[in-house]
Amino acid sequence: MDVASKIVLPLLQLIVIVGLAPLVKGFINKIEARFQNRRGPSIFQPYYNLIKLLRKDAVVSETASWIFRATPYVTFISILIIALLVPVLSSTVPANFTGDVILIIYLFALGRFFLALSSLDTGSAFGGMGGMREMMVSTMAEPALMLSVFTVSLATGSTNLGNITSTMVDQSTILLNPSLFLAFAALAIVIIAEAGRIPVDNPFTHLELTMIHEGMILEFSGRYLALIEWASSMKLLLLLTILVNTFLPWGIASDMTFPAMLISFALYVVKIGFFAFLIVILEMSFAKLRIFRVPNLLGTALVLSILAIISLYVVG
Amino acid sequence: MAEHLFIISIILFAAGSLFALCFYGWQRVGNYISLIFAAIASCFGIATAVVVLSGGSPVHIDFHLLLPIIKYNFLLDPLSAYFILTISVISFVACIYSLGYINLYVGKRDIRFLGFIYNLFLLSMLLVVSANNAFVFMIVWELMTFLSYFLVIFEHENPANRKAGLMYIIMAHIGSGLLAIAFFIMFTYAGSFSFDDFRQVASQIPAVYKNIIFFLVLVGFGIKAGIFPLHLWLPMAHPAAPSNVSMIMSGVMIKTAIYGFIRFYFEFVTPCPPWWGVIILIFGAASALLGILYALQERDIKTMLAYSSVENIGIILIGIGLSMIFRSYNLMALSSLAMIAGLYHLINHAVFKCLLFGCAGNIYYSTHTKNIEELGGLIKRLQVTAPLFLVGALAISAIPPLNGFMSEWLIFQSLLNGFNIPSVLIKIETIICGAVVALTGALVATCFIRAFGISFLALPRTEHAKHAKEVPVIMYVSMGLLAGLCVFMGIFPARIMMTVNHVSSHLVGINIIKSITAYDWMQTKIVQTNFTGISPKSAAVFGLMLLAITFGVLTAIRPRFARRFYETWTCGISPEPRLEFTGAAFSRPFAVIFKGILRPTLDVAKVYSVPNFFVKSMTYVGGVTSIFESYLYTPVSNFVLKASDRVRWIHTGNIHVYLAYIFVTLIILIMFFR
Questions:
Q1: In terms of CB atoms within 10 Å, which of A262, B112, B270, B543 comes out highest?
Q2: What value of ipTM does the predicted structure carry?
Q3: Partner residues linked to B73 by β-bridges
Q4: Residue B529 in 3-state DSSP?
């Protein structure tokens, strides 16, 4: 791979992730509205919201400190770095050497750390409640996440997402391994929880009794809110990308030719659209769980991922 | 070279301790002089370690002092040098920190004693990790225990501190007793107390005795390390000591036990069967998880930090245990990797735990409370301490690009490599350990978000917190050094791993540094394993670049971005500290989720102004039960008390009866050992 593609490809990844993330959110909202017999906002509504917010000044709580003002940047940047490390259009990831999936998991933790801190920073009880719940859900999700990642890593011999994807493409029989099905199921549950979708969290509500993620970001406004909203939609897209390009990598470009990239992009959009549609179906058919039922759901994911590992070792 | 530096360091520590005693009238001056001596001595300690680690061969030092029969043997090999390095770095910073912290006691109590003991305590730790003779080791080990005991009960007018000290000294001596037995078993085979002979006799010891030694050492050093369920003294004693002492105790003293583990299991009783490593792994995982669960429920910031030390010891032990397992299956390269992971985490933990204890000390210095529920809003009052505490919190939560992340990453990589182990059961266990480490990592983050968020953010909850002032410069400058180290050790891991590699290659006998570090396209070192490579430095550089771009774009969109400040919306009333989220509420869900272990208690008492209708006041008392204390320790101590009650009748108080006892004992002994 020449130097040009080393620079072009990361930029392309960034543009796709940053550019498409609000669209995924708009798509989910639109379809969901259709299912509820509403016309719903335009599919591009999240972009309008972001542009509006970016043009505004911000109101900041008097109680808040510099942590509150740094949080949006930290969250946004940590997600952008992840966007460099995840294979999006091509199985070769130029920034591969920077880190692997464990770094990605802990970069998500970095953003979450600051968000939870700033939820306490304003001194309102709602924020703290949201931060506490977010930490609870993500903590309980962590072991299942790590184990399902380990299963994939052990099956492919790498913890590097780019390498995982290319191994999956090269040796497509790996995908028939039953342990990967279990890992997929576990990862899917974890992604629902991490992205804050129903049945774990309801992204549409601002009712203090039910909210998790929205509770944390209640006090942000203007540019700060835009950065956080954008980061959270990118987080959803990135989690879906990891799922898609790890378990269903068919059609992903392995060289840097234009047609290959184009096909890869088209397939990527279709795959992401499919999973977004699945999320809609899921959100339509379930009610939000009681907060103390969530650990049970994540416990299920943990059991699935432990079974995945055991079957990998025992069945081989 | 190394031996001279080491001896100079010893002499400086000893001289420093005497200076503290000399100045009765000017105690502050005496303490300053002794602390500065200790700081210089620590520099010599660092120099010693650097000389040995930079390729010098192991150095023997022998003294013939006091009694000509006992030889005082010391050995500076890479393992000792690595621990000397850790101890010296931390003690250097701690001494500088103490220059400010002792203001808390000047004029209130006699601090000559503090400086005296403090210096000797630091010295005793250096001697523990360099002793090359079981006899000398036991002497300095006991010295370390006693000196730290005196430091724990420094504020002895508080009964809780005296109880903590008592607990500590009893448990530490049970541990010392077991170690003495282990050393005697070794002695019967080696024929001398010298560690050099201990290293040679491993093949002659029958397996049964090896296993006995394994358990004796596990419990003996385990008590000092504070592994579950032997941790009970640790969360009592560490908070009781002054902060400049707790940072030493938590940062480095408990690590001397890890040193003991490595000495025994990698040098004295080799080769070890796989199940030894498995047991260490299980204890490590249990300590990690349970330690952080209790830390999360704690509202005393220093007790919380002490529990978190239990957790980190657990993670270090996971590395060591894994290294033992790999070694017993003859997977030497992996054994070395796991050892590097464990030792890397060891020095990391020393650095950030010392930093966090220092910041907790700063909080106590300026607010006179350690209860996080009484704090709040300190970020606007302790403007330098707050970011320092944040760095420590991020580092301990393994957030990239700080040092905690790198060592946890290495631990994960070693655990993943468990697939090379032939036994399926152990393979699965390493993976379960991975899940435990992941869960622990997330819980640590929660715990430190809570600690930082409740004590530093929002509005001050009490008058103490409201009137807090920043501490003397020297106290935060010294902590700043450690915060810098946290960043440095996280961004340049290859540098640290090259140092640690000297130790692991000395112990395991294989040098893997070539295969775990490589040059990236920027021609700087990255870390790699058979699974992947990582370069936190590049991640940090990318992050800064992206930040610059983001900021540029945002400014282009809205050039005159302004912030308006207004009070937080609290449903129509003015924000008050009473409305803030509390630490107890933040950790409550975890008490509910893990109720099988934590056994949360809840006591709500209501006072009615009109019976059953109008509540006048409510008292809410929540907490967790320590199951080890109630189900393990209390029955044992009750049994001991009862048993001693039973045999009490032999103590008549009559001296003739006692003489008769001695006589009878003598006759029995003569009968048996003619």
A1: B543
A2: 0.95
A3: B62
A4: coil
